[in-house]
Amino acid sequence: MTLEELIDKSIRLSVAAGRPPVRFLQMWERHGLCTAMKLCVSRADETSGYRWAVEHGLKEWTLEMAVDRFPERFDGLTVAYARMRLAGKSVRA
């Protein structure tokens, strides 16, 4: 599965569960996929989308998990943020 296929499936699952990722889709259209993902993942605060996905059993379909699966597509800081969040660690400095 490619990164794009993983994200497409993630979006379909979110829509089916009742929460379309409207803001992410807007960012993707504006900035491209990897930049949109970087902007979402590289935040000190956990996003509401990530929290919602985890609460609804979709952690394996989060942007953070996608970054972890395809680290070669992202810079080291983005990968670190994703892995810290997946581990349940604070990413605040």
**Shape call:** globular
Q: Report how far apart the termini are.
A: 34 Å
Radius of gyration: 12 Å
Number of helices: 6
What structural class is derived from the secondary structure elements? mainly alpha
Largest sheet: none
Low-confidence stretches: none
Question: Which features does this protein show?
Answer:
single chain; 93 residues; mainly alpha; globular
Structure write-up:
The protein is mostly helical. The protein is 63% helix and 0% strand. It has six helices and no strands. The protein has helices at residues 3-16, 22-31, 33-41, 48-55, 63-69, 76-86.
Question: What's the SSE blueprint?
Answer:
Blueprint: H1 3-16, H2 22-31, H3 33-41, H4 48-55, H5 63-69, H6 76-86
Helix pairs in contact: 2-3, 5-6
Give a short summary of the structure.
The chain is mainly α. Helices cover 63% and strands 0% of the residues.
